[in-house]
């Protein structure tokens, strides 16, 4: 008896869901932390064994949808699976002794299943359910420690997640209707590429995916959610989960069809975030917050490139391989940098030197140091970005360099005794090595060109001046004792919170006035609204209720589409 290799795609999703079910069992649940590295193993196998561009139909499930692994999807899937594996190994030691380890393992597996499902979906139903599962199940990871800052981050996260899911659902329904009721991704994408396609659909999709990917000004959840989550969860949030948004844009944007206005606006928002997020992040005091803004900056770069390519009407073949390769490198390198936050403070002596060296190589690669994998993948995306975009990408080395230097200055001091466990050091080193090596080995396959063809030593030397300027500025600041100003994380959340507080005060005053003047009408209504909002806030802040709600919503989505 032989088993079709394409069935492996189904196992990729079902296996972590099965492990999530085991987390609910009284006897096995407390031990399921040991299974974290096992969750992405079928995905790693699929990267090597599953056929490409063949749809696996799943009758009776999700409106008879299917799974499909594309050449672009394999880079996203492989990078995500590798990061989830090493982050899971890291979590074995990091989460040991945590009273909520069982809950952490449960939602870790659910998010993993959704994350991998996004990269394999061949139809709207499968894609949306997977995407929603990522969004909803990640909430308990964000609020894991139940501290006030975590709960605040959770509220911001879940509000924007719901907004994003709503925009995405509306866009999917509109485009499916316009495409004659088909839910196959290829069909709706072709309809979106038609000259008569409604631009509103495109912008609903950009909004839904942009929130997940951290498109400025829709990014505000990242700088608060990433620092709040445990270190291994932060690593996958930044390195893999935000890539679901990037992959959504990769999958649904109408490549080959010129959208000058929409593409230009997306490019401006993306490239604007590339610089503003990096500068704001360089003024943070928490290393995880610094890295969160770095992710916003780097994802802004990718969205700027895609916006420029969309405006020019470039075909998918000239855009997507480079974007996927850049996303893979960023996910692995950023995962290593996040894991380093939980390791470096426990290391001393030779161990600390090894950790710092691994982090430095990952950081320099992200900044685009010549002859690193980061410089290689940046050279790949400069073509689709156009001349102006390529110039901005080159200049971004300055802000990225300053941002990552700030990261090292915010890392915890070395421990006075002891050292980090090997289970925490090995994943960090492994991800750094993968980030530095894999893009070189995959470059030819992704782009069709040999990597050495992208290396021009003279051009590299000339283009390295922004990174050199960043080094000069850092040295000058150290020599003069100049310190970077400290800004609150969340940037736009501050003004939004003040505006909300003023609105609440006005509402309370109006309620009191209405209660005294017309107690049976406006005043009573406003008082009831205020009371309802307070109950909703208490419900959100309740761990058990929130967890149950997330599970019920996820199950409801599956049931509705079955």
TrEMBL record:
One of its GO terms (cellular component) is plasma membrane. One of its GO terms (molecular function) is lyase activity. One of its GO terms (biological process) is ATP synthesis coupled electron transport. The chain crosses the membrane at residues 6-25, 32-52, 72-92, 104-121, 127-143, 155-180, 200-222, 234-255, 261-283, 290-313, 319-341, 353-376, 388-409, 421-442, 454-478, 544-561. Its main location: membrane. NDH-1 shuttles electrons from NADH, via FMN and iron-sulfur (Fe-S) centers, to quinones in the respiratory chain. The immediate electron acceptor for the enzyme in this species is believed to be ubiquinone. Couples the redox reaction to proton translocation (for every two electrons transferred, four hydrogen ions are translocated across the cytoplasmic membrane), and thus conserves the redox energy in a proton gradient. Pfam families: Proton_antipo_M. It is found in: Cell membrane; Membrane. Keywords: Cell membrane, Lyase, Membrane, Transmembrane, Transmembrane helix. It is a multi-pass membrane protein. Residues 121-380 form the NADH:quinone oxidoreductase/Mrp antiporter transmembrane domain. This is Formate hydrogenlyase subunit 3/Multisubunit Na+/H+ antiporter, MnhD subunit. InterPro entries: CPA3_Na-H_Antiporter_D (IPR050586), NADH_UbQ_OxRdtase (IPR003918), ND/Mrp_TM (IPR001750). PANTHER family: NA(+)_H(+) ANTIPORTER SUBUNIT D1, NADH DEHYDROGENASE. Belongs to the CPA3 antiporters (TC 2.A.63) subunit D family.
